[in-house]
Design a protein that fits this description.
The protein has 974 residues and is of the alpha/beta class. The protein is 36% helix and 20% strand. Strands 1, 2, 3, 4, 5, 6, 7, 8 and 9 form a nine-stranded mixed β-sheet that branches. Helix 12 (289-300) packs across helix 14 and helix 20 (623-635) crosses helix 35 (959-968). The radius of gyration is 34 Å and the shape is globular. The model is unreliable at 48-52, 455-463 and 808-813 (pLDDT under 50).
């Protein structure tokens, strides 16, 4: 491949090192026929804008020197061209590069962007193989100084580059033009550019947005590859690039591609609102007043069609509010809403209630579209007590009067939180950072008063319906910190009313912090530790005060401390301490613990009567291991020593049992010495079972989805991974089953021999069998004690919602429940209390609902207690369905993704055919099924009996006793 196949246009910007990185990535390509076309201008804008001509000349010389150096190192691949324009824009330079390109394909790199080594080859092969005129792949951008580069979330979620494919119409891959996917990471045939005459818009700062959409619309075929093509793209700066973003977005929306396709245009408008304007609102607290006013004015000047209220209806409430306030040009309102965006639950505006709905502002607007945009009923502020509701405490003044710090602030006064007749008092608290709340300095606020404005057009952060306050604090006398470790104090405002107290930090814009001045400090340990308090704004936009050494004694003491901690012997001592600490930490590494356990501890003699219990990998004290433990205690067997493992917290575990943290040294010692292991999921797979230990595996539920070696995930593993699983499963001496269904599913696919099976049912279900007998003989009342613990009144029925495991949340994010619990509460809140129990491997945050309608019971240790309490169950594919069937109570199966779930995970039976209750797939169908629950209960009674017999035929209420007999007496298994 001797001819130039691909030209990479790289424009010279103000940073010579960014140019170096880009060109070097082109030179390093594994494809031979690649050239770098470096485009330079006659002048270069310096990194730090300055009026001095020597800065501009110096920047141009630095960039030219780097370009010449790179061209000299590889003249065959690097070619320098110069634009004749005196003050060229990025679009002018890129167009000059396109004109000078000699390759059959052309790609363009932004400043600092780097091609992956095989990027050109991957794009070229995809285009040649498919005959595409445009080939594109993944790209990443920097997310911060230390954060990893990331592909934009919308591109990841849409699966645009999930696999190799070709499309003939951008509508078949809408994110190409909806989400600005073609700003980088693509190549285009030179013939396409010649045929259409496409070039970058020279009057746009973000011309790559328009160019990418134009190329996608003009290409007869587009090839998409899953490979990473470009990295190092500059991070998004919504405020800094706002004017260019808005201009490019308007121009893109005017393209013929969008004029003829309303759905595509609306999708782009929605993406622009969510991906550009919402992040802009989040950035408002970082901007000064002039920048905020300028940004709000730019957005307000957009054509109304680009920010139509109907485009925002699918967004969360606060995001809708931010977009409406931006469209109104209300910079102060966006500031408050943007602050609340980063702090869920914060009330940052006066609220209005109208026709049962709650609106952001003191009075709802008359326009229906604006009213829908400002509807924040979903946030549930109307249900929260004052003590649980953080308020935006906006400092309107932060200044100095002699030795006194003068603060003035404003808080919103929501109607339901601060009744107009309630008396108000307040306190300023200064919390010494690092003291964990032990060192707090308090002073009363001088004045607190209400301020009400009858102007219903007031903005969200206006003076309407607000609480005002003023305080003067002699900082030096109040803040008597030690001075060694407590060098920062965070002020908080505590508002006291008859209904409660709300406490929160003080929000302050950065451009107002300089007026606060400096204050004399009097540390308890003397002024060598500091002599001045300096107010500043934290990264979270809150006021804080820092103890500094500004006078000569303090500066000399600080310099001496710095020297003592940084001169050569001190540095060597630090390195030695770190090395010792690293070696010590290695002793706690799991790999070290595993080797020590498997080579040494497992050889120890077992201790007669020692039992180690574990439930759901130590996450709770419940399930069948708990039932067996309680049976052991009830029988009072002599010489039994019980140990429970816990994952993170000991809350809820029995006080009389010996507790060990999972994977700790004490945990490994206990396992090595135990005569019996009892758990419901599996002790760590890489731990061997001691020779004299008996392992009882109770398991945690019958199977609907395929398990063990029948899972596609396990089938895709290599032989070594499958052998590891086989070895772990071979540790089981006894395996509990509750029906023949378990025998032909779980036992078979976990490869358990017939002699290991104990056909007695699950010990945890003994409680359910007894509860059904009690129901039939005595009725449902009195309810279990857990009802009183949860505050459930007797006149309300209880519905338990327990969905199955759907995969681990990524990066700490919580899962989104399929059921709209808020809508359920609004419809049935007067009749039912909804208990929500997320899977123990997942977490979910529930929306705020009317008090007493929805209760999160995910942290409750024993699900059997909840099943006995529930009058009905809503589930999907969870094994809880098999347990609840023993109670002969109504069940509804909410399965919005049934077909997709079965296709992905597989199943052992047809749920639609076997389910002992209605199977619904939409929210509306679920609400209808709950409304008709009494009628369907009678219709499915026979189905429930058949279901319970088929999947729980061995359940007799004596499973725990049988399990104890098997372990300690060697008695028969049935």
């Amino acid at each position: 491949m001797s001819a130039v196949e691909m030209s990479c246009v790289v424009t010279g910007g103000p940073d010579p090192q960014a140019l170096r990185r880009s060109v070097e990535s082109v030179v390093a390509q594994t494809m031979r026929g690649v050239e770098a076309v470096v485009v330079l201008g006659l002048t270069v804008t310096p990194l730090r804008t300055n009026d001095a001509d020597d800065d501009t000349e110096s920047a141009a010389e630095d960039v030219r020197a780097v370009a010449d150096e790179l061209a000299a190192l590889d003249p065959g691949r690097v070619r320098i061209v110069t634009s004749g324009a005196e003050m060229p824009t990025t679009g002018v330079l890129r167009n000059h590069g396109l004109d000078q390109a000699r390759g059959r394909y052309v790609t363009v790199l932004g400043e600092g962007e780097r091609l992956q080594r095989d990027a050109c080859r991957n794009l070229w092969e995809a285009a040649e193989r498919s005959g595409a005129e445009l080939a594109a792949g993944r790209w990443t951008r920097r997310a911060g100084r230390r954060a990893k580069e990331q592909t934009p979330a919308r591109l990841v979620e849409s699966g645009l580059y999930a696999r190799s494919r070709t499309v003939d119409d951008p509508a078949d891959a809408p994110e190409l033009v909806v989400a600005d996917a073609l700003v980088t990471g693509f190549c285009v045939r030179a013939a396409l550019l010649e045929r259409t005459g496409l070039r970058y818009a020279e009057d746009l700062d973000r011309g790559e947005i328009l160019f990418g959409a134009e190329v996608a619309a003009a290409a007869r075929r587009i090839a998409l590859v899953p490979n990473l093509i470009v990295s190092g793209r500059a991070p998004d700066d919504p405020a800094g690039t706002l004017a260019g973003q808005l201009a490019a977005h308007v121009r893109v929306a005017e393209l013929p591609l969008f004029q003829s396709r309303t759905a595509l245009r609306e999708a782009r408008d929605r993406a622009f609102l969510a991906d550009q304007l919402v992040p802009l609102a989040r950035q408002f607290p970082k901007l000064d007043a002039a920048e905020r006013a300028h940004a709000a004015a730019l957005v307000a000047a957009l054509p109304a069609a680009r920010t139509d209220p109907d485009l925002r209806l699918d967004l969360p409430p606060l995001e809708r509010v931010c977009l409406q306030l931006l469209a109104d040009g209300d910079a102060d309102g966006v500031l408050a809403a943007g602050y609340a965006l980063g702090r869920p639950g914060t009330v940052a505006s006066a609220l209005a209630e109208h026709d049962g709905r709650v609106y952001w502002r003191a009075a709802p607007p008359d326009d229906p579209g604006e009213r829908a945009a400002l509807d924040v009923t979903e946030l549930g502020h109307q249900y929260q007590p004052l003590a649980d509701t953080p308020l935006l405490n906006h400092l309107t003044h932060c200044g100095q009067e002699g030795e006194w710090l003068v603060l003035e602030g404003r808080l919103p006064a929501p109607f339901q939180l601060l009744p107009s007749e309630a008396p108000l008092t307040a306190t300023l608290e200064f919390l010494a950072r690092g003291s964990e709340g032990r060192l707090v300095f308090r002073t009363p606020v001088d004045e607190v008063w209400r301020e009400t404005d009858t102007n219903t057009d007031a903005g969200a952060d206006s003076d309407s319906d607000s609480v005002r306050w003023r305080a003067s604090v002699e900082i030096g006398s109040l803040l008597r910190v030690g001075g060694a470790w407590d060098r920062v104090c965070d002020p908080r405002f505590a508002l006291h009313t008859p209904t409660g107290t709300t406490t929160g930090p003080l929000f302050l814009e950065r451009d107002r912090a300089e007026a606060a001045g400096l204050f004399r400090a009097r540390p308890r340990r003397g002024r060598l530790f500091g002599d001045t308090w300096k107010p500043y704004v934290t990264v979270k936009h809150h006021l804080a005060l820092q103890l500094q050494a500004r006078r000569r004694p303090g500066r000399l003491a600080a310099a001496a401390v710095h020297y003592l901690t940084h001169f050569r012997p001190a540095r060597k001592a630090k390195r030695l301490v770190k090395a010792v600490r690293r070696r010590f930490d290695r002793l706690s590494a799991r790999s070290v613990k595993t080797r020590v356990y498997n080579r040494l501890l497992v050889r120890l003699p077992v201790r007669k009567g020692a039992v180690v219990f574990e439930s759901h990998m130590g996450k709770c004290y419940g399930d069948s291991p708990r039932a067996i433990h309680e049976e052991l205690l009830a029988q009072g067997l002599h010489g039994v020593r019980c140990t429970w493992s816990y994952a993170t917290s000991t809350d809820g575990f029995p006080a009389g049992a010996r507790l060990v943290r999972r994977l700790s040294w004490r945990y490994l010692w206990s396992l090595a010495r135990a005569q019996f292991w009892v758990d419901n999921q599996g002790f760590p797979l890489d731990l061997k079972k001691p020779r004299g230990t008996t392992y009882l595996q109770t398991w945690h539920g019958s199977a609907y989805k395929r398990m063990g070696f029948a899972e596609s995930r396990i089938k895709a593993q290599n032989a070594a991974e499958r052998d590891k699983l086989s070895a772990a499963l071979a540790r089981f001496d006894h395996f509990l089953v509750r029906s023949e269904h378990d025998v032909v599913t779980l036992a078979r696919d976990y490869r358990q021999p017939a002699e290991s099976l104990v056909a007695c049912g699950y010990p945890r279900n003994d409680r359910l069998v007894r509860a059904r007998a009690t129901d039939e003989s005595q009725g449902r009342f009195p309810r279990p004690a857990v009802a009183a613990d949860l505050g459930i009144p007797d006149h309300r029925k209880v519905v338990l919602y327990a969905p199955t495991f759907r995969g681990m949340p990524k990066k700490g994010r919580t899962t989104r429940l399929p059921l709209d619990v808020r809508r359920f509460a609004e419809r049935f809140g007067d009749e039912y209390v909804l208990l929500v129990r997320a899977h123990y491997l997942e977490s979910a945050v529930l929306p705020v609902c009317p008090p007493g309608t929805v209760i999160d019971v995910s942290g409750h240790h024993d699900v059997s207690e909840l099943l006995c309490l529930a009058d009905a169950l809503i589930t999907d594919y969870s094994s809880i369905m098999f347990d609840y069937a023993l109670l002969d109570r109504p069940m509804v199966f909410f399965t919005p993704d049934l077909d997709a779930y079965v296709a992905e995970r597989g199943s052992y039976f047809d749920l639609r055919a076997e389910a002992p209750g209605p199977v619904v797939e939409t929210q509306d169908e679920l609400l209808l099924a709950m409304a008709e629950l009494k009628q369907s209960d009678a219709a499915h009674r026979a189905d429930r009996a058949r279901f319970a017999e088929k999947f729980g035929g061995y359940e007799s209420g004596q499973a725990a006793r049988t399990a104890v007999n098997v372990l300690f007496a060697g008695r028969p298994r049935r």
